[in-house]
Structure formats: C-alpha cells, structure tokens
Amino acid sequence: MDVDEITGRLTRRFGPSVAEWCARVPKRAAEVAARWDLVVGEVMPPGASSVVVACARGDERFALKLSPEPVFLAEQAAVLRHFAPSGRVPEVVAEEDGAVLLTAVLPGTPVDEAPISPSPGEWADLVTALHTVPPGGGRWPSLRDRCEEAFARIGRRLTDPAVAAHVPTGMWARALDRCRALLDTQPQVLLHGDLHPGNVLDGGPGRGLVAIDPRPCVGDPCFDVVDYALTATGRGTITTRATTIAAATNLSPTRLHDWCRALAPMIAISYLDDDRTRTDLLSLADH
C-alpha cells in the first residue's frame, strides 16, 4: 500500500493535516479486515476523498472504503442503501466509523477507461433504474443548491490563467443564467447527482452498468444524463448523443440540449488538456 501516493492525493482535497490519517491507513485497513474476516488486497483506482481497498473472504469479493470524513462516508452508505432497490449500486455489507464494506462490482472497469462508451440504451437503463427509486423520507438537497454551489466553487478557477484562456467570464455568466432558467421549471426525481463516466462501472453480463459515489439531490432527470451526452467516447457528436439518450430515457431533447449548453463550460474545465473535447464543449456553450 503506497502511503505516499495516498497522502499526495488526499492532501489535494483535505490539506496537509490529512497526512497523519493517511499514515494510519495500512494499519486501519488491517484492523477492519481482521474484524470482518477479510483478506486485504490492492488499493483500487484512486478517488478524491477516500481510499478503497480490494478485499476477499473465500470466493467473495469486496471493496473496503476508508475516509478521513466518517460523517460523509456514513451518509454515502445511507444513500447506497436507499438506492439498493434499483439493483444498480454496490451493496453495503458492513459499516463502522470511517469504514464501509461494499460488494465488489465485477469486472468493475470505469466507463471513462473504456475505448467506447456504453450505448445510449445501456445508460438509459441505468438512469431509469435509479430514477424509479422514490425520494422517500430522505432530506435531500435540491438540484438548485447543488448547481449554485458548483458554479460558485468551480467559478473561482476562472482566475487561473490556464482556465481563463478558454472559459471567459461572459460565457460562464451565460451558462449560469441558462442553468437557473432550467431550474425554475424543473420536474422532480431523486438524482444520483454525480453521474459522470468515472462514477459508472461495468457490472458485467446480466447486471449492466453500476453507479458508485452518489451525491443525491432532487431535481430534473436530465441532469443525470448530461455527462453522457457531453463526453461519451466513440458515440458520435454531442448533438447526436443528446438526441439518442433523450429518446432512450423519454426525456425532452430540447431540454437536455439546453442543460448541455448550461453545463458545458463547467465540464470543459476538466478537459483543458484534451483539445478536441474541450473545443467541442466550449463551441456548444457559445452556440
């Protein structure tokens, strides 16, 4: 287990004070594994706010998730339990302060590592299954709150010359206005809230796509398909993807296209080093 890699990665999210927690990760993983009768394997693909370790118990495979934010981790486990009826999230097997044991998703390849993205039908099956789970009694934030927070947080990066060279403040302001206009007329479903290709895994034949790391909120169902329409590799142009995924999910293609225009500048900031994708996104936003 590479403690230096873990420390470097989580320091970017939590600051230098997280180093002490990171140093204890190997011991913490071993202690939890002993209590739950697990054999510890390799650290799985890195996340921004946690450490995930492959584990086994006989022929069973699991993912042990550890986080320096135990409250956040407990909330995420509760969300996964809420989405469990969809069959499209990992099962929560066990939980204690700062640690959650999940069933492994196999083969578990993240969609953003696949040479060709899932078909519109496959993505639609995932989204439809998630959206049929009722909000229930959960105290979920609104999509409006989520979008306002994201535009404020990511908008601070416009002061970075590398970002400002591609995303002018005028484009950003228009995108925020478009987003707010869409939020004024939104329907309401429980959303995954962070359904980008890195948070969707290949669950293999018979299961299909599986979503991880939800950030649930209540709002417009189009929101959970925007990332697919904007960035699905090898699935035609953005317009083509938006049209086909809208048809597959019974959503308004016009409304989805408007959401794509509103969120394209935000997503483009994640693709500054990818000239083609960045150009396509910003061209859409400026259209």
From TrEMBL:
Pfam families: APH. Signal peptide: none annotated. SUPFAM superfamilies: Protein kinase-like (PK-like) (SSF56112). One of its GO terms (molecular function) is kinase activity. Keywords: Kinase, Transferase. It comes from the Bacteria. Residues 47-249 form the Aminoglycoside phosphotransferase domain. This is Streptomycin 6-kinase. The lineage of its organism: Bacteria, Bacillati, Actinomycetota, Actinomycetes, Pseudonocardiales.
